[in-house]
Amino acid sequence: MIVRTLKKAMNSPRKVSSDGWESIRLLLKDDGMGFSFHITTIFEGAHLNMHYQNHLESVFCLSGKGEIVDQASGKTHKIEPGVLYALDKNDKHTLIAKSEMIMACVFNPPLNGREVHNKEGAYELETPPV
After folding, report:
1. Is the peptide bond before 128 cis (omega within 30 degrees of 0)?
2. pLDDT for 47-99, tens place per residue?
3. What's the rounded Cα separation, in Å, for the pair 48 and 36?
4. Contact indicator for 25, 16 with CB cutoff of 8 Å
5. Do 127 and 112 form a contact (C-beta atoms < 8 A)?
6. 0.70 exceeded by the pTM?
7. Taking the CA atoms of the chain, what radius of gyration do you get in angstroms?
8. What torsion do the CA atoms of 104, 105, 111, 115 make, to the nearest 10 degrees?
9. Domain segments of the chain: what residues?
10. Which fold has domain 17-108?
């Protein structure tokens, strides 16, 4: 059984920050669950172009408002509390935060821990040891 608190993880190496966001990684690859689970804050005004070429992701909005743009179709979807989106085809997308958004995120395969987006907006499958 794995039991962790968000508060404790926020003050540990499980907290990862980059341009426009910070992520608390509560479950990672070495936990052996087959997926990783994160609570991610997207900062107000962030405009993030992402393309998870190596991962599938599902995201559930807990708070805040924004939009996600499917770059293939150009279609825009509102993001607000209670909305889930799933990048089931490694969808290239843009996430726009109208206000600070708190998101619960699941990645498959799981992240190792310290990943940040590369120039294509993706996470690498493996990251060098810290």
Report:
1. no
2. 999 988 888 999 999 999 999 999 999 999 999 999 999 999 989 999 999 99
3. 21
4. yes
5. yes
6. yes
7. 14
8. -80
9. 17-108
10. Jelly Rolls (2.60.120)
3-state secondary structure of 107: strand
Q: Can you tell me the distance from the alpha carbon of 61 to that of 71, in angstroms, rounded to the nearest whole number?
A: 20
- For 96-113, what is the mean pLDDT? 95
- Residue showing tokens 């996600």: 68
Of 11, 27, 20, the C-alpha closest to 41 is 20
Confidence of residue 127 (pLDDT cuts 50, 70, 90): low
Give, in order, the Cα–Cα distances in Å from 94 to each of 35, 83, 126. 23, 16, 24
**CA-to-CA dists, residue 56 to 71, 91, 114, 128, 130, angstroms:** 16, 9, 18, 21, 24
